[in-house]
Amino acid sequence: MLLSRCPFAPSHPHQSSSWSTAVVHITNVPPLTPAEVFAPPARAIRSITDEYLDSLATLLDDMFQIPGTRIRIGLDALVGLVPGIGDMLTGMVGFVMVLAAWHRRLPRVTLARMIANVLIDTILGAVPLLGDVFDVYWKCNRKNFRLLMREKHSAQAGAHSWRDWLFLLVLLGMAAAVIGVPVVLVWWAIHLRAA
Question: What pTM did the predictor assign?
Answer without folding.
Answer: 0.67
